[in-house]
């Protein structure tokens, strides 16, 4: 199980990465996160929508309502230029953390 702290820290970059591939709506984002993580990340509506709202207020994403066939209107989200820059910055940071963890967990060579 992934800790709540790690889940919270990864939410924004994951959303930005998904939206960098094209516009999407909330339920679809939740499903993509579940699928891509092999079921390890399980987001809920109650967790996702406040994050999307904050990201929109921070101008990282934008939204618009659309009719989708015969179903009810859905709010679609897109990444903004500011969001793309934020994603690039986040990826650099996450790669640095990952590289540090890999180095720290390698076996220590035995000294003769």
Please provide a written account of the structure.
The chain is of the alpha+beta class and about 110 residues long. It has a single domain (about 5-105), classed as Winged helix-like DNA-binding domain superfamily/Winged helix DNA-binding domain (Arc Repressor Mutant, subunit A, Orthogonal Bundle), CATH 1.10.10. Helices cover about 60% and strands about 10% of the residues. The chain is built from four helices and three strands; from the N terminus they run αβααββα. It has helices at about 5-20, 25-35, 45-55, 80-105, and strands at about 25, 60-65, 75-80. Strands 1-3-2 form a three-stranded antiparallel sheet. A hairpin with a 7-residue loop joins β2 and β3 (about 75-80). About 15% of the residues are buried. The model has no long low-confidence stretch (mean pLDDT about 95).
Distinctive features:
Arc Repressor Mutant, subunit A; 58% helix; alpha+beta; elongated; 4 helices; 112 residues; 3 strands; three-stranded antiparallel beta sheet
SSE series:
HEHHEEH
Placed side by side, the strands forming the largest sheet appear as 1-3-2
User: Could you tell me the strand content as a percent range?
Assistant: 5-15%
In one word, what is the shape? elongated
CATH architecture: Orthogonal Bundle
Total strand segments: 3
Helix count from the secondary structure assignment: 4
Named CATH topology: Arc Repressor Mutant, subunit A
Radius of gyration: 17 Å
Roughly what is the average pLDDT, rounded to an integer?
93
Largest sheet: 3 strands, antiparallel
Q: What is the CATH level 1 assignment?
A: Mainly Alpha
* Total number of domains: 1
* Low-confidence region ranges: none
Report how far the terminal alpha carbons are from each other. 40 Å
- Structural class determined from secondary elements: alpha+beta
């Amino acid at each position: 199980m992934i800790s709540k702290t790690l889940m919270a820290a990864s939410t924004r970059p994951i959303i930005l990465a998904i939206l960098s591939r094209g516009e999407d709506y909330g339920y679809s984002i939740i499903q993509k996160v579940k699928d891509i993580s092999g079921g390890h990340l399980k987001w809920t509506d109650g967790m996702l929508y406040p994050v999307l709202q904050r990201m929109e207020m921070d101008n990282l994403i934008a939204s618009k309502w659309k009719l989708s066939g015969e179903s009810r209107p859905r709010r679609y989200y897109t990444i903004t230029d500011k969001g793309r820059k934020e994603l690039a910055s986040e990826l650099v940071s996450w790669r640095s953390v990952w590289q540090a963890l890999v180095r720290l967990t390698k076996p220590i060579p035995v000294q003769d």
